Every structure is written in C-alpha cells, then in structure tokens.
C-alpha cells in the first residue's frame, strides 16, 4: 500500500537524486530524475562473491581475444555480408593492424558483463559491453540513495524491502572506474614526461596536467552519468575534454614519438569512447568522402595509431560482439585456454557463459519444435531494441536470407526469480507497484593491456570495479533504464 509515509519518502528520494546528478536531460535546459527502485534487490552472499571473484576472468579473456587479430578476422568475416556496420568495423580493424607495429595505442578495457541469475542455472552471461559501457556512476548513486532511504526513512524503506535488516552491498563503481582510467591516463602521461625531460627536441612540459578525451554523441541526453565520471577524474588532477567524432575531424595531429595532439588542447593521454557503436555516430553530411561515414571512421583509425590509452579499441568492440560471445560459448574449457587462461580459469569462465547457437537453415525447424519463450533471437546491435522474443522469433527467422544467418544468434532465455515481495519503482515522479520485478546484474571490470587495473587494500590488484543493477517487470522485454522500461537498482544481501 502506498501511504503518505511512502509518498513523502519517494519525493525526498527524487530530490536527493536530482541534487546528486542522477538525472537524464529533458531538453537543453532541464533534466528529470532517472527511474529507480525504492529499495534494493536481494542477492545471496555466495552468488555475489562468485561473480566478484570470477568476472575479472571475463575481462582477461576478452583482452586476449581482442589482441588475437587472426581470430578476430576469422570470427567476424562470416557476418559482414549480413551486417554492413560490422563490415566497416572489420575494415577499420584491418587498417589499424595492417602492419605489426602500426597500432601504438595502449588497450584500456573497461567492460560491463551483464548477467541474469537463472533460477536453475545460476548466474549466466547475457552480453559483454566493451564500448560505451556506461552508467557505473549511476550504479553507485542509486546504492547511495538506498543507503540514505534506509537511514532517513526506515519505516517506508522497510515496508517495501524484501530483505528485512539485510546489509546493503557496497558499490564504489564511480571511484573504481575513475581509478582505473586515471591509472592508464597517468601511465601514458608519465611516459611522455620522461621523454620531455630527457630530450631537447621535446616541447611538452611534464608539469602540464594529463588529458582525458571523451568521444560523445551529438545532442545526447544521457550525459550526467558521463559528467559524474569526468568530475571524479578532475578531482584526481586530470583535465577532461568532450568531442564528437565530427568535432575531432581534421583537429587531431601527430607529435613526437607518436604523441596524439588535439588542436586547442595539446597532448591527449586517454581516449574514452561513449560513441562509435552505430553508423550514425560517424555520419557527417558536410564532409565529402568515398562512402558514408568513411571520413570519421578514419579519425578513429588515426587515434589508434598513436601512443594513447584507448577504450574501446576497434578490436575490443569486435571481441565483445554477440558473434564472438556465441563462438566462445560453444567452446569447451580446453579451447578457451588459447586466450591466456589456465585450465582452472577457463573452467570458471565456461560456467558463466550461457548457451548460444548460430542461426542456420535448420533453425526454423528446430525452433518450431521448441517453446517460443525458451530462446531470444539477437543481432549484432548494441543498446536496446536488438532482441526478438516469443512469438516474433519464428517469423523473423523465416524472413532471414542465408547471407544474413551468421549475423544472428539464438540465446537460451534465462528465467530469474522475481523479488519475493511487491516492489516499488519511481519513474517521472510517479510511483508504481511491481509484483514481478527481476534484475540484470552488470559487473564492471578494468584492465590495462590485460592487467587488472584497480588497487584494493584487502586484495591487492583486481579487475572488479563495481556493479550496475537494472530491474524491470518480467513482462517487459526492453529493460534499459535509458531506452526501455528498466529502473536503476542496487543490491542487498539476503538477511
């Protein structure tokens, strides 16, 4: 029951969210709070510890896959006829790596691995997110919001909590992501500071602050999550700059020792892509080029040929594709050891990968014998709107041409257990009761050239960098907070 105590607490929560930047831009001059759950979702300590202990291995795996350029070519080549964007990405990959030493960039892999905790199978990977893997800052903010509500409005909080007296699961995603990025940024900056102090030809002063360049989409509304990360980096003494690919065109140049330079700014130490996962990010109608988007794609190629930390590299983007995920999920543990994992780690990774199958001419017959809710049909697209469910799958399979098959895959649909009690969500100031709330668990990791990048007092270096929970009704297929009907959420241990 939504009583006055709940209404007052939710209004307080909305104002808390707005004052701390947990918002989405409404127009150029205003913003509204991001949708969120009023209380966190429960998780067992064993499940959480399992994910934290093992998720770094997925980042290690993906790094080695991304640097195996022969494998990337073999994996992606079959889908290019059915996916023009991936054809363009593979051409970019080949241009970057056409010579053994042409790619000077330092690979900075910031990855979010998304899981669902299946009622029978346990946590299984839904997808890798290796480019524009955002909303980590919002993940920390909603955890802080739940902590605030637990302390300030315990009566209302406990009324809607499904885990009485449970301990909230700490989330330092904003600080940890900033730490990992800062480590890579200072690594590059220090390389050139040493050069500047030892070479009379160098013009760069080691006293200049390191520079972080975020490549963004034009007129994006999901910018405050990005700004929170920038503020955390600025607090570490890093200058932050924002540009679109169009704004970078003809403004980048090469300095001494393959230094990347930006007009009006100077040397760049880290390039972080929050754009580049769709053709529209490279579109510029005012530039004449041989084919659509070629000019701005050349800008991305140019970046990777310089000594700069980059997330995501084109190789990382390809390595985190649904196509590569499907191929990895079909391998046994022994086969996974070719990607830098000893057998014990490969066994752990193998247990996290969900079942995926390629689409073929036999898929229609196979699917016709299955229940429509056993599978999800996926293409290679990033973000919401690229999955097909239930009764829509079979007609889509029948429409596909043989040349399109390789660009699609079938994933075994996971069935997580819904919250045991009715949950309360807050969207655009309105309260809604949801009796079947399920959650997707995103786990962030950071690797610098394959090495764990987060310093932990208790565990030393590790890759784990916090989590993002997005919850939705089990009746809703689009669970994105920004693009679907999902809400930000956090975790609480089962009491």
UniProtKB/TrEMBL annotation:
Alphabetized Pfam families for the sequence: GSH_synth_ATP, GSH_synthase
Lineage of source species: Bacteria, Pseudomonadati, Pseudomonadota, Gammaproteobacteria, Alteromonadales
Similarity comment: Belongs to the eukaryotic GSH synthase family.
Pathway(s): Sulfur metabolism; glutathione biosynthesis; glutathione from L-cysteine and L-glutamate: step 2/2
PANTHER family documented for this protein: GLUTATHIONE SYNTHETASE
EC number: 6.3.2.3
Protein name in the entry: glutathione synthase
Keywords in alphabetical order: ATP-binding, Glutathione biosynthesis, Ligase, Magnesium, Metal-binding, Nucleotide-binding
Needed cofactors: Mg(2+)
Coiled-coil region list: none
Superkingdom field: Bacteria
Residue ranges annotated for the Glutathione synthase substrate-binding domain, each copy included: 211-319
């Amino acid at each position: 029951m939504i009583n006055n105590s709940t209404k007052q607490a939710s209004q307080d929560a909305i104002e808390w969210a707005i004052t701390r930047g947990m918002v989405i831009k409404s127009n150029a001059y205003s913003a509204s709070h991001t949708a969120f759950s009023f209380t966190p979702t429960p998780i067992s300590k064993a499940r959480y510890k399992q994910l934290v202990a093992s998720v770094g291995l997925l980042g290690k795996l993906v790094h080695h896959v991304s640097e195996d350029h022969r494998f990337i070519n073999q994996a992606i080549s079959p889908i290019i006829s059915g996916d023009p964007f991936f054809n363009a990405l593979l051409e970019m990959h080949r241009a970057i790596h056409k010579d053994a030493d042409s790619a000077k960039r330092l690979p900075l892999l910031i990855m979010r691995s998304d899981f669902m905790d299946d009622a029978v199978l346990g946590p299984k990977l839904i997808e890798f997110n290796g480019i524009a893997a955002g909303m980590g800052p919002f993940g920390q903010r909603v955890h802080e919001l739940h902590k605030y509500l637990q302390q300030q409005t315990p009566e209302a909080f406990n009324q809607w909590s499904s885990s009485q007296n449970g301990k909230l699961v700490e989330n330092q995603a904003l600080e940890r992501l900033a730490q990992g990025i800062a480590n890579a940024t200072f690594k590059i900056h220090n390389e050139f500071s040493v050069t500047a102090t030892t070479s009379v030809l160098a013009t760069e002063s080691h006293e200049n602050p390191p520079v972080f360049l975020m490549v963004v989409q034009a007129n994006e509304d999901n910018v405050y999550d990005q700004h929170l990360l920038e503020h955390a980096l600025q607090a570490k003494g890093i200058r932050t700059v924002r540009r679109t690919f169009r704004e970078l065109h003809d403004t980048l140049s090469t300095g001494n020792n393959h230094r990347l330079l930006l007009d009006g700014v100077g040397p760049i130490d880290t390039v972080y892509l929050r754009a580049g996962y769709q053709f529209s990010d490279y579109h510029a109608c005012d530039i004449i080029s041989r084919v659509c988007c070629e000019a701005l794609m050349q800008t991305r190629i140019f970046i990777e040929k310089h000594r700069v930390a980059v997330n995501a590299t084109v190789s990382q983007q390809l390595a985190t594709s649904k196509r590569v995920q499907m191929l990895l999920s079909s391998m046994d543990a022994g086969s996974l050891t070719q990607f830098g994992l000893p057998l014990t780690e490969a066994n752990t990774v193998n247990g996290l990968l969900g079942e995926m199958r390629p689409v073929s001419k036999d898929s229609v017959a196979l699917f016709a014998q299955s229940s429509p809710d056993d599978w999800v049909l996926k293409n290679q697209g990033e973000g919401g709107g690229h999955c097909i469910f239930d009764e829509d799958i079979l007609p889509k399979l029948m429409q596909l041409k043989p040349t399109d098959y390789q660009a699609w895959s079938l994933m075994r649909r996971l069935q997580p257990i819904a919250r045991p009690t009715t949950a309360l969500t807050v969207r655009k100031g309105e309260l809604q009761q949801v009796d079947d709330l399920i959650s997707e668990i995103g786990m962030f990791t950071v690797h610098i050239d394959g090495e764990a990048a987060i310093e932990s007092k208790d565990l030393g270096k590790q890759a784990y960098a916090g989590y993002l929970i997005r919850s939705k009704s089990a009746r809703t297929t689009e669970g994105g907070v920004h693009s679907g009907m999902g809400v930000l959420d956090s975790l609480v241990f089962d009491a």
